[in-house]
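Bug: token stream looks shifted between consecutive jobs. Job 1:
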Amino acid sequence: MSTPTTNTGTSTPAPRTALSTRPDKKRPSTAGYWVGTLVAVLTTLSALGWGAFAFLGWQAHVEDFCRLTDPGTAAVSVTRTGARFVYLEHDRTTAPPSVLPVTVTGPSGVEVPLTAYRAELRYDVPNNPNRVGDAVLTFPADEPGTYAIFVADIDEGTAVAVGDDLLRTWAPQVVGSVALLLGGLLLGLILVIVTAVRRAGPTS
């Protein structure tokens, strides 16, 4: 009679399925906020400093204009050739005269032609808040040397000033400082916005 046999072997357990655990994505840091703010502050201070320096330089430049407050002749030295402007400084409540009796003689002794300035170019007279200067005439200073400016008549309380083109000389300074200010603020704002968008995204 056969005896039944019992299988006493150990059964192999079913393999466990490994769960993939991926660490959560870290939220971007707030460094972008600080960098954007720092860029905006530094460029703003730089632009304001540039603008203040340009303004003080412009005031000193206008103060150095050759002036006549009475009829007579003034000598204007020209080292850099180019157009020169004749300005009439007067009370801001009065209009400049349409014709100014001025003649200009060049270094060679030849009279230089004058041209009426049709556009508007006005400045505030430094240290005199009630007075302005209006460009009324221009003349070409094509050769270096001394130019004689003769004013035959001038109203009381007014002055004739001779200088260069203020718009061409100082406009780039103003545009540069404004561009630096706006560019810095825009760059700082972009950094802040990009940082905010990245931090608002999903972290997993």
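Job 2, same session, no restart:
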Amino acid sequence: MTGNLGIDQKQGWRPRYAAFIRRLALGVVPMAFLLSQSPVSAEVVVPEKARVMTGVELYMMFRDKTWKWENGAGRMQGEGRVFRAWAQSEAGATWAEGRWSVTDGGQLCLKGVWHSQSAAARDKTCFTHRILDGTIYQKREPAGDWYVFRHARPAADDAFNRLIVEDLVEAKLPIIRAVLNAHAEAKTNSVRPQTEANEVGGVQ
């Protein structure tokens, strides 16, 4: 399980693990966990000659794309570098909004605030990319395994195939927000009568 969460003892696994458990308890599912549920290629050894991808290359690859997950999707909007996402888990639906960024160090980072029925939590997930002869290698930071993200000759099971042009987020987000708002309002209304009764008759 620690491998899926990107936990490394040398980099302070206890605080990150505690934060992860706390978010799950609140119904806010970290994106790294969502991505760990989606199948990817087996771990590989990156060739020494593979170079770090540039920010421009990463921007062109991810801009205005939807990243499909097993139980959700994230949208990387080109204009304004806005990142929006939604996910469904046993704890219920969640949604996120924030920004995405790329660097000349080969990194793509997705940062946002995830909202659930009972809480909101910030989350940041980054990926490093290298390329050689058209094959792109990817790993989740800080302690994920390298795997082939896209083969030079595209394969049916390439993780790259989960990047699509269709926007699977824009229409879904308002629905999830409405459901969560309705749940919060219903919870507030259910508490108010008891609070008013206590104010009138006192707490026994």
